[in-house]
Amino acid sequence: MSSAPRPPDWRRPRQLRREGFDGTLTLVGDEPYLPYDRPPLSKQLLTGGWDADHLSLRTPADIDALDLDLRLDTAATGLDLEDRAVALADCSTLPYDGLIIATGVRPRRLPGEGAHVLRTLDDALDLRDGLSPA
């Protein structure tokens, strides 16, 4: 199982499948989207040069070929090392034999109003909509 599907996470499932692993591979992520390329959020997407579909790191066929158990829009909230299980925000647990934790980072929020955070696809879409002429 891998938590928080960020770009590096795609390499490991591909490698495991290439090496012949045919067991369950689960990717857990707190966003509702398949992993996407983040640098274009502040460039191509924000300026309107790209739409969200251009951000995908893999084609649907590539993702299907990995035969993943995708748990999108579900945050990992805890880890039980003794029982070898990951707790999820939906109150379920996922047992694991092997685990990769790729948490990424969270932005520091500034106090006050008017500061925007640009970390996720939703952040970029909200900011773009706010910058668009009414």
What does this 3D model show about the protein?
The protein is of the alpha/beta class and 134 residues long. The protein has one domain (2-131): 3-Layer(bba) Sandwich (FAD/NAD(P)-binding domain), CATH 3.50.50. The chain is 22% helix and 18% strand. It has helices spanning 11-18, 44-47, 60-65, 121-131, and strands at 2-3, 25-28, 68-71, 76-80, 85-88, 93-95, 100-101. The strands form two sheets. Strands 3-2-1-7 form a four-stranded parallel β-sheet. It has a three-stranded antiparallel β-sheet with strand order 4-5-6, with no helix packed on it. The longest helix has 11 residues, at 121-131. It is flat. The termini are far apart.
A few lines on this structure:
This protein has 134 residues and is an alpha/beta fold. It is built from 4 helices and 7 strands.
Question: Keyphrases for this structure?
Answer:
single chain, alpha/beta, FAD/NAD(P)-binding domain, four-stranded parallel beta sheet, three-stranded antiparallel beta sheet
CATH superfamily: FAD/NAD(P)-binding domain
Low-confidence stretches: 4-8
Which whole number gives the mean pLDDT?
85
Spatial extent as radius of gyration: 17 Å
**Any idea of the CATH class?**
Alpha Beta
Largest sheet: 4 strands, parallel
Name the structural class: alpha/beta
Strand content: 15-25%
What is the share of helical residues?
10-25%
The CATH architecture assignment turns out to be: 3-Layer(bba) Sandwich
